[in-house]
Write a structure and sequence with these properties.
With 400 residues, this protein is α/β, with parallel strands linked by helices. It is built from 14 helices and ten strands. The protein binds guanosine-5'-triphosphate and magnesium ion (MG).
Length: 400
């Protein structure tokens, strides 16, 4: 165990050696001075030992504060009888900020998207025909989709006259991506006069609908809103239980259904309960899988109709949840759901687990639909409102 000595300890320590020297000198009759009284030589030794002992940590006699080990807070002072062997308390690291989580979440997409473009510029620093061709091919090969790849490429080509080196070209790409994404930045705002605000959550199975509902409910509860969730995914009993668990966890009211129940009647019951119980927000889960895609879309359309009939104007938000790990398929999914339902907002989940998150740029470019949230992890606060600037900054951040 290491101990921390104070400056006075060092002085006392020094004195102990002075007395030790006096003891030796007195024993050998070589004292450099003569004292008016005769002090026994042994007194010098006693003083030397006493002073030395004072500095040495001895449990019960002279307790000392141990130097804290790195990463641990000292729980106990040497010399005190331990009540029980308590494990040292780990020092809590500050929780990562939202931007740090975003940066971490987008690191794989940075590698799968931005690094591939940077590699083109690493091979040559002169922006010539050859480099532009290589850039065009690389952009088309990323997850943003061909149409968006050409939109970005054309922006670079158009400005080629003023782009003289790699970093200027990279900046032009960043600029264009920022412009595309900024156009889709529109956070989900709940107007006070719309009560209950109805959010219908859609998306294919496994895209993250149920957990996104929990995260949104958690957010809204933290903002002081009262939330009710309806389990409109009646396709599996487990889906209902999973949602009930989340509602319970985040403190939201819950409208339960049973397996095989008509989803539109669950949504209707949810809306009725939201109105009669005075909730601010109703969030409706929906199934992601049915025997055929046609069936799924027809069922969702029916739910939408039933809600609108009960409370004209609702659902206020039809949120499409997309899984970033599926890459370009997300573009096609957006098209299908949008054609059937008229999507009003997008949430892209699992960006933290995907290198294909660049697809969000493609979706932003091809559809005039706001991107509301992005998912960068499984914790409740890992669903972040989409902010284009923060997103681009994290996306282009080279951590190596
Ligand atoms: N890493 C990570 N995992 C996520 C994120 N969002 C959702 N998930 C996980 O994705 C899995 C599927 O999520 P669900 O919410 O059950 O998906 P769903 O769309 O409701 O699925 P079905 O009910 O089967 O249609 C779960 O294990 C979630 O924890 C995210 O942003 N990051
Ligand atoms: Mg689900």
């Amino acid at each position: 165990m290491n101990y921390r000595f104070s400056p006075s300890d060092y002085i006392i320590y020094l004195f102990s050696y002075v007395f030790f020297y006096l003891f030796i000198a007195d024993t050998l009759n070589t004292l450099p001075f003569t004292l008016p009284v005769d002090i026994p030589s042994l007194s010098y030794l006693v003083a030397a030992v006493a002073l030395n002992a004072w500095v040495i940590p001895i449990p019960g006699i002279h307790p000392r504060t141990p130097v804290p080990l790195e990463g641990y807070v000292p729980e106990q002072i040497v010399g005190e009888e331990p009540k029980e062997k308590a494990a040292p308390t780990p020092v809590k690291k500050p929780a990562p900020s939202a931007q740090e989580k975003l940066e971490r979440g987008l690191s794989k997409t940075h590698k799968g998207f931005i690094d591939r473009i940077s590699a083109v510029f690493r091979r040559s620093d002169t922006v010539d025909e050859h480099l532009l061709t290589e850039l065009e091919e690389t952009l088309v090969g990323t997850d943003i989709g061909v149409r968006t790849a050409y939109a970005i490429f054309e922006h670079v080509q158009k400005n080629a006259g003023s782009i003289h080196d790699a970093s200027a070209a990279m900046n032009a790409i960043k600029e264009e991506i920022t412009t595309i994404l900024q156009g889709r930045e529109a956070p989900l705002n709940l107007p006070a006069e719309t009560k209950p605000y109805v959010i219908m959550v859609t998306g294919v199975n496994g895209s993250g609908k149920t957990t996104t509902i929990a995260k949104i409910a958690y957010r809204l509860k933290n903002e002081g809103k009262s939330v009710i969730i309806a389990s409109g995914d009646t396709f599996r009993a487990a889906a209902i239980e999973q949602l009930e668990h989340w509602a319970d966890k985040v403190g939201a009211d819950f409208i339960k259904s049973h397996e095989g129940a008509d989803p539109s009647s669950v949504a209707f019951d949810g809306l009725q309960a939201a109105i009669s119980r005075g909730h601010d927000v109703l969030i409706i889960d929906t199934a992601g899988r049915l025997h055929t895609k046609e069936n799924l879309m027809e069922e969702l359309k029916k739910t939408k109709r039933v809600l609108d009939k009960k409370l004209p104007g609702s659902p206020n938000e039809i949120l499409l949840v997309l899984d970033a790990t599926i890459g370009q398929n997300a573009i096609e999914q957006t098209r299908q759901f949008n054609n059937a339902l008229g999507i009003t907002g997008i949430t892209m989940t699992k960006l933290d687990g995907s290198s294909k998150g660049g697809v969000i740029v493609g979706i932003a470019n091809e559809f005039d639909i706001p991107i509301r949230f992005i998912g960068v992890g499984e914790d409740m606060d890992d669903l972040q409102p989409f902010r284009a600037q923060d997103f681009v900054q994290a996306l282009f951040l080279d951590k190596e």
